[in-house]
Amino acid sequence: MSATTSTTPPNIYPDLYNFPPFFTRQPNTTTFAAQLHAWSTFILTYCRHHRLFTLELSTALDSDLFHNKALNRRLKPADAVEVLEAMRKDGLVEWVDGATRSTVLVYWRKPAEWAEVLYRWVESVGQKGSVLTLWELVNGEMTEGEEFHGMHPMVLQSVLAVMVKRGQAQTIGTEIDEMGVKFF
Amino acid sequence: MSATTSTTPPNIYPDLYNFPPFFTRQPNTTTFAAQLHAWSTFILTYCRHHRLFTLELSTALDSDLFHNKALNRRLKPADAVEVLEAMRKDGLVEWVDGATRSTVLVYWRKPAEWAEVLYRWVESVGQKGSVLTLWELVNGEMTEGEEFHGMHPMVLQSVLAVMVKRGQAQTIGTEIDEMGVKFF
Amino acid sequence: MQKGVGLGALTRNTKASQIYASHGERIQKAHLEELATQLNVFQAVLQEFARRHAKDIRSNPTFRAEFAQMCSAIGVDPLTSSSSKKGSFWAEMLGTSMNDFYFELAVRVVELCRATREGNGGLIAVAEVRDRIMKKDERTGGSSNISEDDILRAVESLKPLGSGFSVIAIGRRQMIRSVPKELNTDQSTVLEVIQVLGFVTPSMLRANLTWDRARVQTALEDLLSDSLVWVDDQADENEYWSPTFISQGLQP
Amino acid sequence: MLARVSLTAANRPELLPDESLLFVQPNVGLYEGKNKLPNHQNGFAYLTTHRAAYVDNAQPRKYSVAVELKDVDRVEPYAGFLKSSPKITLHLKVNATGSASSTNTSNIPSTPSPTPPQTVTWICPICSFSNPLPSNHVPGLSEAPSCLTCGIKPSPSILTAALNAPPPPPSSSTCPRCTFHNHPSLSSCEICGASLISTAALLETSKIPSNLPPPQPQPPVSQIIKFSFRGGGHGSFLTHLRSALIQRKWLLHSAPPIPRPPPPLPNPPSHASAGIAGLESTISARRNTAIQTLGSGAFEDIDSLRAHGKDLIALAESFKARFNSTPGDGDTVSSSLARSASDITQHLNLISKDQLPSGDEAGWIDELSRQVADFLLTNKILQREGGVMTLIDVFAVLNRARAGIDLISPSDLKKAVDRFSALKLPVRCKKMKSGLVVVRDAGRTEEVVARQVREWLGWDMGVTVRDAAEKFGWSLGVAQEELEEAERRGWVCREVGIEGVRFWGNRFLWRRGEEEEEGAGEG
Questions:
Q1: For residue C34, what pLDDT is reported?
Q2: Partner B contacted by C235 (CB < 8 A)
Q3: SS3 of D315, please?
Q4: Is this structure's pTM higher than 0.95?
Q5: Nearest chain D alpha carbon to C106
Q6: Which domain holds residue A54?
Q7: Which residues of A touch D499 (CB under 8 A)?
Q8: What is one cellular component GO term in this UniProt entry (chain C) (predicted)?
Q9: Domain map of chain C by residue range?
């Protein structure tokens, strides 16, 4: 997924975005299934475009993701939670805190895919065998401009878990902010 | 049918009342026949319990007779008319006005049975040979507490017609509100 | 598609008729022979033309419609079997360009209807089907030029496969119905009213159609239950929108 | 030399990885040498790039055999004469017969034992020519072979006498190449030095006490397989066969086949395209006649043709209208138009109902029917769709798989699926009560499916069409149909609300315990 935005900004808003009933939870099960699918795709595209690894529900509800100012229509909080809950079941999002359900990690790209991107980067910069702290990995200058720069630590965790399973890396330490990782 | 209410109020709602398809006109003929029968029994039981001689369709459609609020399911107006029409063919109900079909007389007790109840009352209070106005008969204090108290005038008419045929009574006058009846 | 216009139908009628009134016969016969030869000539012309202009037939929608009409007028039904076993030049020639074109289009229409069925309840405007297929072609580099008539002909060609796809008119718009369930009259009337603004409210219906409250509610509930409309409850009165307006984008 | 053929679910030859089907021809019979092969007289001939196979109509599983094209030495067509139908004779290579017979033992079901064919000779009473008795001749069962020189069939007694006459002792081993009778103990021929080992090896087996008659020396005559075409089509079969023999695709076969899933069904040739060459020749021939008839106005572009076309359509329409309106159309008049009409359709060779060339169309539809069955079964498409698909979806999937070349028309597909039961294929096409036409596994009747739905619903579960589609793997259209089928049987009832339609176990007709035992499902 080339992160570079092409000349004309790709229209990330689906046709449905300008269709007022899109913001009302449809009573009919079949229609609701189509609505759910449309919202799920839209949320992923929106986050990918804005490179958002997490969505904080309350702010999102006012952002143009869930609120179409032109039509003066917004998705109700309860309905937004229902959409995100459905996406969680499909493994597309993850509640940061299952209880509060206030913020969600958005896997607009699967951890497995991220693992490949990361591994390709490690090879390209020859960091094999060296140890890096998680912080450095996603916020250090050397990863400036990389796609995974600014990745949310929890997302990074699940990505590294995949790499560990594949034997491409080994995490060191337990405290989340001092953890390091050694790539092979 | 003993009209006396037993200690716990009898459950007049059939178990089908909580079965959502009960409120949908069934396309399968055999199933629909069973559905019709169930509705017919329920309407008679409901009216008998509430001692309703007439059913005004529009109000009934919002009452718990045709609208199960818990299930948020209601019988469609057209389907209710179809049920009542079927009951009319079985002589269980009568449209007050065949054209508008807005209100229906409910014979939760056959006119013939009412005739016997009335006749037994006339004998018990020794009113044989005396003349009573129809109004007196169903609204006067003396018939307070009797089953037929508050009977709808049209229902009373058909009951008296049965008694005249049996030679148990003779109606006097023609205007419905000043009509009188002489019992033998 | 043999609507009885073609020669197949001609042969069937002729068997049933009796001897022609004598004085007109000679002229009739002459005229007839002249027509027969003309038909032969014309058929050869069509054949030669079809061979040389296969690409144009495929790309030019207006001519394709006329070509199909010409074929059916002289008894050639472009959509009949393209089994073309004995290598007859015509069926083969047509087989490769026209027939395949309509069958391929029919396949894409079937797939599109199936994909959008959940969102529109199996009722989609022919114009929308055309736009979506054309947009998809542009995206994949193709530059197909498809007319609404082609889409109708493609749906028509599905007839032998049993009920399922039919074309119905809602107001002036041709719609494709990909679900066997018919619409009742109230549903169609309401859908027609919706076409004006894209949505409708109960009060609008009561005003325009002078229906009572119960009838309006039943009609709208029927439409909802068949997933033919979406409801918007954030306006002051519930608005019922038709999905056909999704793809057209509502900004002025 | 005739190897058994493994068949797909729809009784069509299973193709090797890089083998592709070239031509299929119905009602064909097989001859081995001069004599008809019993049980191989009515079937389909399948010509592929590697083999010429015969699949019997009556019992495909038992009587389907094939000749490897690499064994074919030369091909000899015979155009047929009076009663005898046209044939194509395949002369198999001599050494091939040896190797062929040793590699895939010729296990024509009728031959009693797999030993190499030993020739018993019978002497024809009329011309006293000693004819070789075919190895698979079973006295009494197969008809008597006719004499090679005078063509008269001997009486069965002569044949039986020849069979049980004591075969001559192995006086000498004739050399397979120069037929010189060498001394039995020699290992190679004195004259041409050809190895006699194959016969020598046979000699050893003779030591094993077995009731087999002592083996005869290997005759040098080459094996002959004849395809007899009783339904025509031998012309195109021949051209395909010749081109296959030239291209020799089987040589690539020797390369180790890369293990990959069986290739999607090879795009079956439409019978018409007798090779690109064939197409070119018909087009050019056609072109000349067209130009001559056109004479002057050869139309160059669209508009002129359209102009001409318009008034001609009007002409045809008006004439037809007038034609119908005038009651007294003369027989002679109408018949001549009918004739010209039929000429045109004849010329255009379009299938119109009354002129259906019976043989070929049926053959094509049967073949298409088998292809569709194979397509749905081998690629597990039907299985993935829960065993039931709407015919419209079959049309879409089938033609999508053919990627736009030589698509199957809806009317052809309908004819093909209607042939499923007649061809005893494991799929069925059924028009449901609602009018929806579905294709489904043969075993899966409505009764079976409706019962499954009822058991799944049980007593107090309401399901939507989507739930059913997910549960049984059906498409939405099929799920709706199956639920409505169960409803028609009175086992299921429906709840309609703005949420949509939900189906429930039918409590109107069944009490809670009742539906377990098999109450009669009326409705």
A1: 66
A2: no
A3: helix
A4: no
A5: D396
A6: 15-106
A7: 27-29
A8: ESCRT II complex
A9: 1-14+26-180, 183-242
